[in-house]
Amino acid sequence: MDINTLKKLLESVASGNVTVDEAVTNLKHLPYENLSYARVDHHRSLRKGFPEVIFGQHKTAEHILGITKAIAEKGDTVMITRLSAEKAGLIKTQYPGAVYHDEARILVYEQTPPAKKTTGLILVVAAGTSDIPVAQEAVVTARTIGHFVETLYDVGVSGIHRLLDHEELLTKASVFVVVAGMEGTLPSVVGGLVDKPVIAVPTSVGYGASFGGIAALLAMLNSCASNVTVVNIDNGFGAGYVAALINSLAKT
Amino acid sequence: MDINTLKKLLESVASGNVTVDEAVTNLKHLPYENLSYARVDHHRSLRKGFPEVIFGQHKTAEHILGITKAIAEKGDTVMITRLSAEKAGLIKTQYPGAVYHDEARILVYEQTPPAKKTTGLILVVAAGTSDIPVAQEAVVTARTIGHFVETLYDVGVSGIHRLLDHEELLTKASVFVVVAGMEGTLPSVVGGLVDKPVIAVPTSVGYGASFGGIAALLAMLNSCASNVTVVNIDNGFGAGYVAALINSLAKT
Amino acid sequence: MDINTLKKLLESVASGNVTVDEAVTNLKHLPYENLSYARVDHHRSLRKGFPEVIFGQHKTAEHILGITKAIAEKGDTVMITRLSAEKAGLIKTQYPGAVYHDEARILVYEQTPPAKKTTGLILVVAAGTSDIPVAQEAVVTARTIGHFVETLYDVGVSGIHRLLDHEELLTKASVFVVVAGMEGTLPSVVGGLVDKPVIAVPTSVGYGASFGGIAALLAMLNSCASNVTVVNIDNGFGAGYVAALINSLAKT
Amino acid sequence: MDINTLKKLLESVASGNVTVDEAVTNLKHLPYENLSYARVDHHRSLRKGFPEVIFGQHKTAEHILGITKAIAEKGDTVMITRLSAEKAGLIKTQYPGAVYHDEARILVYEQTPPAKKTTGLILVVAAGTSDIPVAQEAVVTARTIGHFVETLYDVGVSGIHRLLDHEELLTKASVFVVVAGMEGTLPSVVGGLVDKPVIAVPTSVGYGASFGGIAALLAMLNSCASNVTVVNIDNGFGAGYVAALINSLAKT
Amino acid sequence: MDINTLKKLLESVASGNVTVDEAVTNLKHLPYENLSYARVDHHRSLRKGFPEVIFGQHKTAEHILGITKAIAEKGDTVMITRLSAEKAGLIKTQYPGAVYHDEARILVYEQTPPAKKTTGLILVVAAGTSDIPVAQEAVVTARTIGHFVETLYDVGVSGIHRLLDHEELLTKASVFVVVAGMEGTLPSVVGGLVDKPVIAVPTSVGYGASFGGIAALLAMLNSCASNVTVVNIDNGFGAGYVAALINSLAKT
Amino acid sequence: MDINTLKKLLESVASGNVTVDEAVTNLKHLPYENLSYARVDHHRSLRKGFPEVIFGQHKTAEHILGITKAIAEKGDTVMITRLSAEKAGLIKTQYPGAVYHDEARILVYEQTPPAKKTTGLILVVAAGTSDIPVAQEAVVTARTIGHFVETLYDVGVSGIHRLLDHEELLTKASVFVVVAGMEGTLPSVVGGLVDKPVIAVPTSVGYGASFGGIAALLAMLNSCASNVTVVNIDNGFGAGYVAALINSLAKT
Amino acid sequence: MDINTLKKLLESVASGNVTVDEAVTNLKHLPYENLSYARVDHHRSLRKGFPEVIFGQHKTAEHILGITKAIAEKGDTVMITRLSAEKAGLIKTQYPGAVYHDEARILVYEQTPPAKKTTGLILVVAAGTSDIPVAQEAVVTARTIGHFVETLYDVGVSGIHRLLDHEELLTKASVFVVVAGMEGTLPSVVGGLVDKPVIAVPTSVGYGASFGGIAALLAMLNSCASNVTVVNIDNGFGAGYVAALINSLAKT
Amino acid sequence: MDINTLKKLLESVASGNVTVDEAVTNLKHLPYENLSYARVDHHRSLRKGFPEVIFGQHKTAEHILGITKAIAEKGDTVMITRLSAEKAGLIKTQYPGAVYHDEARILVYEQTPPAKKTTGLILVVAAGTSDIPVAQEAVVTARTIGHFVETLYDVGVSGIHRLLDHEELLTKASVFVVVAGMEGTLPSVVGGLVDKPVIAVPTSVGYGASFGGIAALLAMLNSCASNVTVVNIDNGFGAGYVAALINSLAKT
Predict the structure, then answer these.
(1) Once rounded to an integer, what is the mean pLDDT over residues F225-238?
(2) Pairwise CA distance, residues H252 & F120, whole Å
(3) pTM of the model
(4) G176 DSSP 8-state letter
(5) Which residues does chain A have within 8 Å of residue C167's beta carbon, measured at their own beta carbons?
(6) How many CB pairs under 8 A join F and H?
(7) According to a count of CB atoms within 10 Å of the terminal CB, is the N or C end of chain C lower?
(8) What ipTM describes this predicted complex?
(9) How large is the angle between the packed helices H236-249 and H132-145, nearest 10 degrees?
């Protein structure tokens, strides 16, 4: 339930279209609904600005479906990350309107599209083609919340001119998500070129001494560029979410 | 050289108070000045929004003094982090107007105070009293750049009510810096209570299996709150800097 | 062989229903029975308060069945942890009365149900729905030993109010098992709210820098709450076992 | 402020010896007192069973003295862990009645000695003579809270008969703290001999591949004895505190 | 080619049964035979006391068969470790006399059985039933070289009496191989009971913080018993080989 | 596009066989071609001495085919590393002239064979037969660039005479690639014997405490031979590439 | 108390020079003497072949002196390892006959020199001059127990001919201690040259990625030579002790 | 003894100025001289191209002086790395002609300056001013061997234009040494710009998650630029030495 839905509900009460009892019924799920295996937080969109997002990786299809149903019934947008294509297919048999972004591995079921934010641009940059799935996780997340996102892919530092050619795009964005595996260098370079916040996402792309993304993670944490913060390895969702939060600030 | 200084220079050229040749002399240091041991980046404040900050930890007093002189002569604000009290004393004999924040270990030499930003509030939260020096590094950094900062200290999760009592303050801020050592839990708890970006700073406070801050760092990277990003262990400066960048967005 | 079984045997000897030779035969397996691949410790329930528990993970079905038989023949309760559904099926063909708890992956074959302890309550708390299997391992273990157990699931710190709403339940329990993956924060928060022992169980739930549970483990070891002790990653059994031992103290 | 102190205050109000206003003044510090650098939690002894303990390691002498004063003025027992002899000397000049346990590095200032608990025995076992300081931290902590504690030192597993000779003592205790560095084996051996909870404390004693206590910590986390839980490296205080909590259960 | 084979060859030359040219042909492979993918070291049994042992894990069936043929043609004993049952089946179709020890995963093809050494006893001790495959690797290795080996299995430290009951066997052996996973404690306990060399073998048995055998490895390296040395995780072969070398010393 | 191709193009322009417009069309892809998922760097062979090499491991067959086509159309040599046999088969259906080196897992599609360099010899040395695939990756890489390469395999340090027997070959080479897993010792020994650069390649061959190649990597980084540098675990390609670069220096 | 001392005591009883009561008094300290901070194990030389050795590193001078006195009074040899020169000086004021080996940091106080063993030779090999102190710890230990020891120093693998020149010495020894820091290669090379047990000792000599000896430790654990076992980093004492145990086997 | 010295000796023999016996005396030190604590390898300059270099860090002043004397007496150049200013002072009292490079911490005592190589240029690049001492170690090493070296300092990636401004210098060099701490990004960026070998040197400059240089080391090992190889953390000497070896190739 987001603020607009709440306002509409209260206006309906005011105008007599909804009785007080009906409103109470609708609101009484506060603060959350107990599914025994999960407590769905319906007021999160009031408190946090976006409905609860379902982390699909370790959950059974049944649990995911149950939580989806609980959220969908309140009219909220359902967003499920790290969802396999197979489980997504199951959800879509129940919710045909849901869209599965297969590279990003995110399913989105929107009953009302978000009002497009009138704020700045989020630029998602990826070092190599193998980093694109994580980058897309950030892209889909931020767009689902209602933000404008552009992308700049395969601009790793071993060919620094590929990046420098897009200086104009770099100056247009108000917040950056920079995704890189292997040596994880790109966020430092981007961070040195721009004067906006850069959210660095290490990926597990690499082999040997990349140690599943540790090398990239450490490089980003030690960035000599002061405008870089870091999220967990492969956490494209978190980066997209924070980028949206930051970008939202610009409008107030 | 920040934008105001540049504008004034150009206006002086326009009004005839400064000749074109003098202006050229002043600008020709672009892009940086070579001190042989360091290249001072005078146009950084144009490109990045704040003059180059000196990382004092591994540098000799002589090098620091040389870089300070190069920056100060351009009229820019000098800010030196991780500076020992002893070296700070040396700088102050040359620049009596400099202020040394001993808990934060930052020296600031401001020739013109920054125009106070008309944007939102930065709230810096620290878990324990031992985390305060790192928190203060963030506070001094953000204030030097011109932002409003409030603090909330000693509100670690082992007494969660200490934090919950300040709900009003939590809703007032537009960006958070949350500092914690040991198990590094506080950013997740704060992140769950607010709908704004949270920059988590792990500290090296702890012993045994804290491994110099690794435990806190990992906890923060794995935060189940989606609005948390992380900086390096004890990197209060970086957190304060990014918080200021984010907070600056609010004004445009 | 637990104390009650022993007493009954001796009373039978006293009453003439069992001859001394028969009793000797029954007791002579002391201190253990050698199956060549395993030494079954039949007097463990005397010495340790509960019969030997079989760790099923690395054992072949044949070995498990052999040990099961040796324990069952003495009349003791058989409990097998980390048992796959497939191997459990094999055991149940031989022991149809056995119960397989599939979420907990524990098989229990009880010939005589344990006398319910008249002691306090064990509360098992889990941060996320993905942590439930490990939590259930603790629940089934403690219940099999004869203790009252309640559960509180999906109350992770990113929505702290979910936990705080159950303050009453928190004050009722005499010992806590708190299960969490990812950043492993929940035991510290629970530990700060209660004045009873808290056994923290890190789980391998997470990705990237959770490193298979290391992040959660370190967070728990560094807990700023003084009443927290820790067991191995995913060791729900150990946590349930110690909780039962602690809870047993309350009755003497 | 513990329960007895609170009761006395209220009885004094009832009998007219204390006015309501005075009582309010005394109670209004709830929930804690803000010293700016620390929030002293005076109601902790109500909520947690023992007043707040001061972790002395990273704090300045001035901060420690300030917190000590705030606690002492409420009549509570002051306990400071990881306190250097030098800082302890400073505290004692202000509080001559304070006792400094130098091996344990704990200072205790008791205004009213605790009523001795009528519960069972805590046995603290240490593997080598170098582990004794950590063991003593547990001993002093548990005794200060009011428990009976016995010790068994230098009984490491390389001479297992030293331990087995004390079988009687092992059966008398209701909870164990077992302290060991190097290979950290002792808790598993003790755990196999007794049917009570064992709190294992790894120490940083060792060299080379002991990695400052990691080897001992891992050995304890992987204990094949089911009754072992673990605290942080060198955390004698935590072990003693939990042992006291567990031992307290026995009385109710 | 071992010393006996060499002697026989030379005696045959002396007696005229083998011509000098034939002997030269047989000896000219010195120092090794080049199979392009492997250099088979036929004189190793002269230099090292036993023919070259084939490490089967990373090699293709074709390579293994080629090396086997090269060794077998010289009349030497072929021993292949870490060999899957499937590849062993392939070898046995060519060498029906070969014996595959499936628990130890070793194939032995002996053309002449080794003269039994008249030296002392090697005792192989294993902590749990899951450690038996690694222990058997040591057993088969030492027996193939010609030594007497006894075993003592499932005597882990959580039931120390199981071990102490075999004191007589412990005094009979002249060298020990002690195999343990999880917390890796058993070698220290055995080492404290005997005055002979103990070779400790950590196994990868365990879960969570056992980290694939690291916990056991570290415990063994930090053993407080002075007579313990360590081999790689799961390296039963190396332990059996060194035990044989040590035991061989006893005869000279 | 390499230098020769460029020269020919310009000569064709000079001779009128290619119009200026056609040349412009051909050159205008500078600096790279955007395939949306990858930016192919056609001028890399001018800038870097060899066309862009495709890292096949994390890419889909479709992406690989697309990049292959873009490179092949410019007349450049296509080289794809870490390519599975299955994907290689797909490429070969489109480019029948391509050669797949299955041990090295490299596919090469050469439209014009490289002029053989007239420089010195590259010697690739491998410790064990299991290290050969990584060694072959270096061999195929250097040969594809046009260098003479010889190999010396199965000469690990446990039989040091195998290596010393090839002293002549060791003195002939101008640069060495030395590949080893397990303890990673061979580069130090080779480095001590020769006065040329040695590129050490750790492999993931081993088990237990080899930690997937970390042991070998650390040994090589700590080499006491001063002429050793190191590449990533299993990075035969990088070693072969740098060896070719170094060997190329000899000719100028 | 070693076997000879015991025999003499019993012979004295037999001959009437010592009364039974006196003998009982002398023997009744069995199994050990309790110094409150340490339990001295006087019968260790019977059970383990050598009196208890004192690990001096973490002990106070007072404790060391107390244990020394308890051992010396029984007529046993006192050996203290990891003893600083300063503490050694204190011991020598009480026991002027004690000898302090400063490179090895061992103090030995022998009341009766050991009968020289008539067994084989122990060869202690060290890679670099910086490894000599650890090597000397092994040398002094083995000599104090009564063994013949020779040394071969500064023969690291970067100059392999230095080692190969001593082939004769290598064939003479019956057991080897090989000490190396940095890449820790030497034990593998020595192990490949000889057919006797090799005890590898990693040292903390090195910098950067030697990680205080971890690189050398891992190299040794992964040795491709089958006759290598390993002790803790810098544990020269343990290596010398086990070498003596192995060498002792040769005589029986 | 280098090749020129050897030739002169032989020419002197040929001309009768040196008798055969004198020449034998001079040559008989082959292959090395035994100082008991060190074996000085006088023929190394023949075999390896430069006299033995002394690693000064772990050696006593006495040992260093002894080795210096042994080398100097043969007329060879003495080079001592990681030498403290204090020990350097001692050496200079004996060898006043020695030069101590204090930033590089190298002492060089040259009796005959090396003939300047007629080969290409070595360019040493450093990311930050704190990395300069390690860079200078490379510079002094390569210059002492006789190479031309230029430097480019303080050109870290957070201000990438500082590096790009020196494109001309980048194209002039035939081999690069690139030194960086913190996130260790610079070698990848330089590697992407040039077509020559790049030797990457991680430094221990940084704090927190730089882990003493591990972050930089991992970034370099995972470099996406194919022309990068890596040496140990802070190993400026090794990088300079290999750069000289590579640069030497250019002349033949």
Answers:
(1) 95
(2) 10
(3) 0.84
(4) E
(5) none
(6) 94
(7) C
(8) 0.83
(9) 40
